Amino acid sequence: MRRFLLSRILQALVTLWLLTMVAFVMTRLTGDPLDVLLDARATEDDRKAMASVLGLDRPLPVQYAIYLGHAVLGNFGDSFKTRRPALTMVMERLPLTLELGTTAFLVSLVIAVPIGVISAVRRDTSVDVLGKVIALLGQSFPTFWLGLMLILLFAVTLEWLPASGAGGPAHLVLPSITLGWFTVAGIMRLVRSAMLDTLGQEYVVTARAKGLRESGVVWKHALRNALIPPLTYAGLIFVGLLAGAVVTETVYAWPGVGQLVIESVAFRDFPVIQVILLLFGVMYVGMNLVIDLLYIWIDPRIGLAETTVRRG
Amino acid sequence: MAKTTRHIACVLAVMLLVAPAAVEAADVGGTLTVAYATLFDENMNPLLGPAPSKVFYDVMYEYLVYNDPLTLKAEPGLAERWSMSDDGKRWVFFLRKGVTFTDGTELTAEDVKFSLELLVRKESRWPFRSTFLRTEPKVLDRHTIAFDAREGSLADLDQSFAYFLGLPIVSKAHYDKVGDKGYDERPIGSGPYKLKAKRAGDAVTFEARADWRQHWRVGAEWARHGAFKEIIFRKIPEVATRVAVLRTGGADIAELTPEVMREVERAKFQIVRSPDSYVPLVTFHGIWLPSKPGYDASLPWLKKDVRQALSLALNRKEIGDKFYFGAAAPTAGPHWFHPGTLGWNPAWKPDAYDPARAKKLLADAGYPNGFTIPVRLFTMPGTTELPALGEAVAGYWEKIGVRADLIRTEWVVHRPDLVKRAFKGATIYRGFPQVEPVTVWRLAYHSKGDFGEREDPFVDSVLDTLAATVNAKEREALAKKLGDFLVTDFATLPMVSASYLYGTNPKTVKAWQPTRGKYPDRFEWVVPAR
User: Fold this and answer.
1) Which ranges in B423-494 belong to alpha helices (H)?
2) Which of A154, B78, B146, B407 has the most Cβ atoms closer than 10 angstroms to its Cβ?
């Protein structure tokens, strides 16, 4: 078990190191940030002065070594654009993205799980079809379009909710529906198929034979067991929601990391882009690690099997 | 007695009725919310960002000179007057006395000198850093500052001192106390507003200074018409969302694009235009001096008649009416020449739409079956429609047999190719009015300039003479000469004069006039509707 854990952590560290390298090289392939930082009227002297200030006048491998050395100590450099620490800039936006992502995730679960369960219980009926349609609509609507439609309906026409910005709970409603609805279909289908498997299990048949109420059988006994596969998958969906909030944040002027990504890419703000990529990399890798551990917790044979295979 | 009492009562009643109106007129209260596509760098310290592009700097900082929002003529600011020596080697500015920063300290020539020295530091992104490295600021007395040429003369520089338009004056004493980052967090200026709060990526809030009645620039005007106590600049990247926010009362002023203008008008909001903000146009590349390494004499657009044909193929009225939804009108003049600014000739008229004549010109020039021209398309801040406009241009040219090979790119990718003279073809670009555009003319047209839009020994000689000429009339004559040459040469093909558009809520905003050709500004002059 310890060996398994260590091997997973080592893999995660190697993945993150590779990510820093890829992020470093890829960002620099996009062009010279001086072209964006400086005005068209800037002279060659201006460019040289700014390059030396930002450390861009050194060879790429040297730049990378300096970056990595500082990053290990938690210093990710200053933003080219604002001259503030890149990590601080990302961290001050992260709570808003977490807030939006978490709410969207909850919206997604609240819609997807009941639809998945009902679709499984009423398999191949009109209710099943309706459930699938609702779920698939979220995936079919472009997020950009859906966001604008919701704004027009609920903010402009009905005047129920604010059109944009981050503030109280009311500000969260439209962006979280926009972001969360997209992932409903995936979770719903997983819940549905897991429920179909579970509903055919012997213990469910036994529960029914004992005369338990159908709602108790479905929502208590069957659902609890059926939720394990979708919930582990949902962990990755959650990180995906955080990383994929770019469009929703733009439409709703939500000042989170998603908008920061766009600004930073447009500005070739390498230090900020690198922090964001690393942050989401850590989240994905961390979530995978958690899922691996969850599987072992659920089924200890998995960890033992891996260890045996490696020894064998 | 009773009559007297009634009389006094009447007078008192009238006074009571009138008094609130008088107080209301002078009221500084309420909040103005401006929805804009970007907050730029969100830096408050001029050292840390490209100072002239900050919409919110104007409410907090002040400048030596201002310009009239419509004519762009230089007007006194912190400097009551200024002069250039006859030999063009010294500029002198005489500062207004009694101007204070928001901490109550007086603004002096030392602050101006310090502000300039700040922006020429090597980490500065100020566009005129190199220009001011050529000068040496000298404090002559508490309210007088001179800028001496370190070598040669300053005559080639901007005669109307537009270089000072974007130089925000910071407090030296405060800066010495708090440093670079401290000034970014706790900036002070001499403007009518001071920073109240900011939230990264979302909003910046300013509050009117308590002593606004004594403020040299806005005091009298605010006392007459009132003003907003707070201004919030909100970043809302998507235009449809900005319109929604305007319609739901979340913003009082919103930056618009032409396609949403009708919707905003239908919803009974006002449209404010910054007239003649910019001119989308076609620029040609490859018309260089034959001595240049990349020169190719076989390029069809090297011939003047071909360029004229390409111009006659453009239906400018249709572009204004359909593409810009009526928010733009046909215009003339070469790149970086605009009505009311140096070198403009009122006799220039837009080319008429005449595809038949265009075809004949092409045939006479040896291209009866047309040719293919690479056209690079990219967006620029404030003019994101340029690539789509390029597609419209390609459609017009196709009708006369010219095939545009449309290439999507970015300005930052395209610009180095211009400098290296590595691109031969056309671009869909834009020009906007500048108080005195000699610097951009040199960049655009001089054979040693960056962009190579029309190289010619005559152009070089006019530009070089212009750089050495101090006399304003002689400069105007030279500029006209250059403009006339470029117009008759069809060096660039201007299409329409377009306006930056803003929607305002008539219930909260009574009047506002942004400066022509600039990002929205002058928010300190917004007159509340109350």
Assistant:
1) 438-445, 457-467, 472-488
2) B78
